[in-house]
Amino acid sequence: MSATSILDVRNLSVRYNGTTCDAVKDVSFTLGRERLGIVGESGSGKSTIGRALLKLLPTAKVIADKMRFEELDLLSLSERQMLDVRGKRMSMILQDPKFSLNPIQRVGHQVAEAYRRHFRCTKAEAREKALAMLDAVKINDPMRVYDLYPHEISGGMGQRFMIAMMLLADPDLVIADEPTSALDVTVRLQVLDILDGLVRERGIGLIMISHDLNLVRNFCDRVLIMYSGHMVESLAARELDNARHPYTRGLLAAQPRIGGSRKPLAVLDRKDDWINAVEPTA
């Protein structure tokens, strides 16, 4: 791991119990204090990588030559030790707050509870920390919204609460798994702007898991392309249009474009040798 890297993964493979093939196979990459996008179709292994890093795959076998986060060897940590890592040093923002927030607890209390899980403090201190973070993620009138229930807030506001909850402990790494997929375009841009500002201000590493090439092109610094559980290409986000792998080229060609041709979009003609078509570097 270089001096600027906070995460180093080498030959990560994941196989779910009861299956005969790997969901993720020999994936290697490093992460600095940057925004790294992981892109691919549904089932390509994107979310599996994120959950493997947090050791949230009880029904899968996870093996790797190396899975190091700062000074920690994630492969050797027990579940008890991981409880101190998850949420405090490494957090995950999920894609739909209505499935992540407890429907019978007030949203502000859930944010404060996340802080008290990792730091010794009074309820009043946790409340103040939570209110300050709600203000940081641009929640209007946080003192009023603090006491609302999940069904009383919008999807965009719920996602901001999730971001607040995951960043409250000031982690060094945040994994965002499709954090804007359930939001409309305007709210999506607002949420991305909040994430971008917090990442830059706090100097953390961000892994953005997405199927949206335009999103990672405009938001991330680097992009990893996943195909059938394999990482087939790694390149700077600004160079995405210069991708060489036929799968990446196919994904780009399948995107509708405003003002583009009215002809039917290209359909991927998959080849058996695509996995080894380009030697990826990360």
Summarize the structure in words.
By secondary structure, this protein is an alpha/beta fold. Helix content is 34%, strand content 23%. The chain is built from 10 helices and 11 strands. It has helices spanning 46-53, 79-85, 97-100, 107-118, 123-136, 142-145, 155-167, 185-202, 213-219, 246-253; strands at residues 5-16, 24-32, 35-39, 60-63, 66-69, 72-73, 90-93, 173-177, 205-210, 222-227, 230-236. Strands 7-8-9-3-10-11 form a 6-stranded mixed sheet, sandwiched between helices. Strands 1, 2, 4, 5 and 6 form a 5-stranded antiparallel sheet that branches. Helix 7 packs parallel to helix 8 (185-202). The longest helix is centred in the C-terminal third of the chain and has 18 residues, at 185-202. The mean pLDDT is 87.
Offer a few descriptive terms.
single chain, 282 residues, alpha/beta, six-stranded mixed sheet, five-stranded antiparallel sheet, 34% helix, globular
In short:
The protein is an alpha/beta fold and 282 residues long. It is 34% helix and 23% strand.
What is the SS-derived class? alpha/beta
Order of helices and strands: EEEHEEEHEHHHHHEHEHEEH
In total, the number of strands is 11
Q: In what range is the share of β-strand residues?
A: 15-25%
Q: Provide the low-confidence segments as ranges.
A: none
What is the tally of helical segments? 10
Helix content, binned percent: 25-40%
- Write down the Rg: 19 Å
Termini separation comes to 12 Å
* Sheet of most strands: 6 strands, mixed
Mean pLDDT: 87
Question: Outline, from the CA principal axes?
Answer: globular
Q: Give the spatial strand order of the biggest sheet.
A: 7-8-9-3-10-11
